[in-house]
Design brief:
With about 130 residues, the protein is α+β, with helices and mostly antiparallel strands. The chain has a domain at about 5-80: Roll (Structural Genomics Hypothetical 15.5 Kd Protein In mrcA-pckA Intergenic Region, Chain A). The protein is built from 4 helices and 5 strands. The protein has helices at about 5-10, 15-25, 85-100, 110-120; strands spanning about 30, 35, 45-50, 55-60, 75-80. A 5-stranded antiparallel beta sheet has the order 2-1-3-4-5. Strand 1 and strand 2 (about 35) form a beta hairpin. The longest helix is centred in the last third of the chain and has 16 residues, at about 85-100. The radius of gyration is 25 Å and the shape is elongated. The N and C termini lie far apart (about 80 Å).
Length: about 130
């Protein structure tokens, strides 16, 4: 089975096109060497995939017939990714939240609640007398 098709079948990538592009960019290695998307893979091969700034390490147990359901994926591959790499993923999540500049993008739920609270508690936004304007 082709390496790009295998990565798509075990749900590492959402589409085969994304898997193919990852192979072309050198983000997929089989047994330590970068591969083309058409490279065949076999059971006991070790695949390392760089995705979202994290290097995942997988060992092939068996080759599936077609794309699998999420619950069946572990029958065909063994995830041997070191914990340090998975901790990087958590750090990336926290860093994205930290670097969001205030006022950029859509307001979060918390921002919306704060805005609603200001409107409810402040007398500045209440209607003024029309007689003062005339």
């Amino acid at each position: 089975m082709r390496v790009d098709k295998f990565l798509w079948c075990i749900r590492t990538f959402k589409t085969r096109t994304i898997a193919t592009n990852a192979c072309k960019k050198g983000q997929v290695k089989v047994n330590g060497s970068a591969v083309k998307p058409s490279r065949d893979v076999y059971p006991t091969d070790k695949i390392s995939v760089r995705k979202n700034q994290v290097v995942y390490t997988l060992e092939i147990l068996d080759l599936p017939e077609s794309r699998l359901g999420a619950k069946l994926v572990d029958m065909y591959r063994k995830d041997t990714t070191p914990k340090e790499n998975l901790e990087k993923l958590d750090l990336l999540k926290y860093s994205k939240d930290y670097y969001r500049k205030r006022g950029t993008g859509r307001p979060t739920k918390k921002d919306r609640r704060d805005i609603d609270e200001v409107y409810e508690n402040d007398d500045f936004f209440t209607e003024t007398d029309d007689s003062e304007e005339e």
